[in-house]
Specification:
By secondary structure, this protein is α/β, with parallel strands linked by helices. Helices cover about 35% and strands about 20% of the residues. It has 3 domains: about 170 residues, Cytidine Deaminase, domain 2; about 130 residues, AICAR transformylase, duplication domain (Cytidine Deaminase, domain 2), CATH 3.40.140.20; about 45 residues. It is globular and about 60 Å long.
Length: about 400
C-alpha cells in the first residue's frame, strides 16, 4: 500500500487528507481493521517509536497509552503487586502474570485512566490474548503492534462494533534520516532525533549524593524516552518500571512539574486502602468509576460531591480523605525518578518534585541557576544527573 486516503485531517473541514511515502515506496504499515484517522496515525507513529526505543533500551517488552500525540504513560513488562492490579482494575484478568506485555499495558493504561479514555495503544511485541482481553474492555481508538496472535486479533476486531483500528507495523522499518513538514505553506526540514538514551547518559552526577541504583537508572531511562515523544515543555515522573505522571505541553517548567506531580500523587493514592476499598455500586461503568475516583481525590470537589451524586455511585457514602491524611500517605513515598526535557530554571521544581517522593532527577543542565537547583537537591539528599541533551518534541 503506497498511500492511504483519510476521511479528513485534524478536523472534519480539513479535506482532502492522506498519508503516503514521498519516495514512492510502500507504507510500513498494514491496516488490519478499521479506518484510522489523521490524529490516530500521528499517535500510532509516535507511540510506536516510543515502545520500540524503550524496549531496545531496557531489554523488556513495553507498552504506551497515547492521547493527542503525547503519552499518558509508558511502562515495561514487570509484574504488578496485588494493590497495583486492583488500582489498575486488572485483578480479575486471568493469566496476567504470564504475559509481560499485558503487564506493561495494564500499567500504562492504569496510570492516568482519565487521560487514557479513548487512547491509542502501542505494543512493542506481538499482541497476545491476555493483552487483547484488557484492551477489549477499555474505551480505545486503536492499537499498533508488530503483530497480532490470531485469537487476539479476533478479540480486538469485536471492539467498536467491528470498527476498531488495528495496525500492524513492519518492525524493521527505518525512516529516512531527515524529517520534512509544512507549516503555513512553509517547508521545515531537520534531521531525525536519533539520539540514543541509555545508562551512559546518567553518568554525570552533579549532586553530593551519587548513589544511583539500577532501578532508578531504569526508571530515569523510561522517563527520558517518554519525554522524547511528549509534546514540550514536558516533565515525567517514573517509578517501578513505568511513567506515573506526565506533564506535557506547558509553557513553564514549574507547571509541567506540578501537573506531572499531581498525577503521580493520584497514582500513588489510588493504591491506598481508602481508594481500593471504595464501595462502588455493581456494574458502574468503568469511565464513571475513574472519574469518581479522581473527584474523590481532588482537593476541592464540593461542587460535585453532593449526597445525590454519591448515592448514584456508591452503596454508602464514603468518608473523604482529608488534606492532612493524603499528605501523610504521600510523605512515605520515596524513590521516584524525574526526567525533564530541558533544564530546570529555578529550584522550585525540585521543591515540588520532592513533595511527590522524587529522589532521582535527570535533566540537561545549562541554566544560569544550575547551582541553585543543585543546592536544593543537596538539601534534600537527592541524586541529580546532567544529561547535556535537550529532548524537545513538537
Amino acid at each position: 500500500m503506497r498511500e492511504f486516503e483519510l476521511k479528513y485531517g485534524c478536523n472534519p473541514n480539513q479535506k482532502p487528507a492522506r498519508i503516503f511515502m514521498d519516495n514512492g515506496s510502500d507504507l510500513p504499515i498494514t491496516i488490519l481493521n478499521g479506518r484510522p484517522g489523521y490524529i490516530n496515525l500521528l499517535d500510532a507513529f509516535n507511540s510506536w517509536q516510543l515502545v520500540k526505543e524503550l524496549s531496545a533500551a531496557t531489554k523488556l517488552c513495553s507498552a504506551t497509552s497515547f492521547k493527542h500525540v503525547s503519552p499518558t504513560s509508558a511502562a515495561v513488562g514487570l509484574k504488578l503487586s496485588p494493590e497495583l492490579k486492583k488500582a489498575c482494575f486488572v485483578d480479575d484478568i486471568e493469566g496476567l502474570g504470564d504475559s509481560p506485555l499485558a503487564c506493561a499495558y495494564a500499567r500504562a493504561r492504569g496510570t492516568d485512566r482519565m487521560s487514557s479514555f479513548g487512547d491509542w495503544i502501542a505494543l512493542s511485541e506481538e499482541c497476545d490474548v491476555v493483552t487483547a482481553s484488557i484492551i477489549k474492555r477499555e474505551v480505545s481508538d486503536g492499537v499498533i503492534a508488530p503483530g497480532f496472535a490470531p485469537e487476539a486479533l479476533e478479540i480486538l476486531k469485536t471492539k467498536k462494533k467491528g470498527a476498531y483500528n488495528i495496525i500492524r507495523i513492519d518492525p524493521d522499518y527505518v525512516p529516512e534520516p531527515r524529517e520534512i513538514k509544512q507549516v503555513f505553506g512553509v517547508t521545515f526540514e531537520q534531521g531525525r532525533n536519533n539520539f540514543e538514551i541509555n545508562a551512559g547518559l546518567l553518568e554525570n552526577v552533579v549532586t553530593e549524593n551519587k548513589r544511583l541504583p539500577e532501578s532508578a537508572v531504569r526508571d530515569l531511562i523510561i522517563s527520558l524516552i517518554t519525554l522524547k515523544y511528549t509534546q514540550s515543555n514536558s516533565v515525567c515522573f517514573a517509578m517501578g518500571g513505568q511513567a506515573i505522571g506526565v506533564g506535557a505541553g506547558q509553557q513553564s517548567r514549574i507547571h509541567c512539574t506540578r501537573l506531572a506531580g499531581d498525577k503521580a500523587d493520584k497514582w500513588n493514592l489510588r493504591q491506598s486502602s481508602a481508594v481500593l476499598g471504595l464501595p462502588f455500586i455493581a456494574d458502574l461503568p468503568r469511565a464513571v468509576r475513574d472519574n469518581t475516583i479522581d473527584v474523590y481525590l481532588s482537593e476541592d470537589s464540593d461542587d460535585v460531591r453532593g449526597d445525590d451524586v454519591w448515592q448514584k455511585f456508591f452503596t454508602e457514602q464514603p468518608r473523604k480523605l482529608s488534606f492532612e491524611e493524603k499528605r501523610e500517605y504521600l510523605s512515605k513515598i520515596e524513590g521516584v525518578s524525574l526526567g525533564s526535557d530541558a533544564f530546570f530554571p529555578f529550584g522550585d521544581n525540585i521543591i515540588r518534585a520532592r513533595r511527590s517522593g522524587v529522589t532521582y532527577v535527570a535533566q540537561p543542565g545549562g541554566s544560569v541557576r544550575d547551582d541553585d537547583v543543585i543546592s536544593e537537591c543537596n538539601a534534600n539528599n537527592m541524586v541529580m544527573s546532567f544529561t547535556g541533551m535537550r529532548l524537545f518534541h513538537h
